[in-house]
Amino acid sequence: MEAISIIVPLTIAIRASNNMLMTTIPLLVRYNFHFSNTLVGLISALMAMMTFISSGFINARVKANVRRIIFIASSAVYAAIFPVFAFSTPLSIWVLSAVAGFSLGFLMPNVITSASLLPDRVARERLLNIYTLSLSISLILGPAIESLILRYFGLRESFLFFTAFPILALAMAPFVRFPQEDGDRHAISTRGVVTNPGFITAVLNIATYNVVFSFLMAFGGIYARDSFGLSYSEVELLFSLFFVTSFLGRLYLSIRPAERLWPYMAAAVMITVVGVSTIVLTNAPLVYAIALLILGIPHGTTYPLSVVSISRAFKPEHRNAANSLFFSFMMLIGIITPTITGYIADLIGIRNTFIVLIPPVIVALVLLRRYVKSVDKPHE
What we know:
Layout: H1 2-31, H2 37-59, H3 64-81, H4 92-104, H5 108-115, H6 121-150, H7 155-162, H8 164-172, H9 190-194, H10 197-228, H11 232-255, H12 262-281, H13 285-313, H14 319-348, H15 350-371
Helix pairs in contact: 1-2, 1-5, 1-6, 1-7, 1-8, 1-10, 2-4, 2-14, 3-4, 3-8, 5-14, 6-11, 6-13, 10-11, 10-12, 10-13, 10-14, 10-15, 11-13, 12-13, 12-15, 14-15
């Protein structure tokens, strides 16, 4: 219960504010600063790139005692910089996004690791599923709150209101558990992590969805506003709707943790293809909302299955390195996807760009089938 009382509010605080940045910065730079789709994609990629650097190249390599200090310091930086977005300019928004992304690279991987420290496999996987459930709660709560704020205030002011979340994260940061490490005998090389079949399974699995998710976060709101004339408040309400079915998927996995991962992973890809195809084939706001509900389901199941895959494949003392590199690979997808798709969207439009997302998802599924066997039957 102690772990839950720390992990749940901290996760909600970090993820709600992080998602707010992901969805609101594209709207701010598009409609206040008049950025093109290419520039919208680049600023989304910049934040992901800085998270990739801090998570994969720094957090994955430092020891637990140093990592704890960096974790608390990053929480402070994140809380301090968040309200400054309200006063950003077309130039400073790049710097602010870079600093926020860099700070986040030290936050989420350590929360994941803290949630995976329980020795009992069933209890550990249940806590990990509760952790991912907390992510979904924050992703419903965040856009819903922002939708209400945007009914009465502008995009800039919403950053001031949401500063409460980073402040909560800073207050909780000192209480996060870090794994005990006994010198260098527990060290694992980067190669040892990235060649582990369980790690490859986690990365390929998250790739089957994060390609679509990265594009949705960067351009889903712009598409809804340009195509259907929705207000900022209605756009955020759509995002909240998307995360409702994500929450239901994670709730199911929290109650009934998956023994075999492959059936869930394969089903998630099929549902993703259906959701993306629905957006491409029909141009109506109601159908778009239904498509987001469909796409929320694989969003809800894909991430927790990847986290469980890592927890099954690595010893406790190796999970920080694995989680940090996994998080950095997620960010790598977040760098590549908006960079490429932003340029494509300028050429063929956002709606048609959804078609481009389907082939990479299918390729990742084919590769995934080869590696998932290593973690599909958990060891007691």
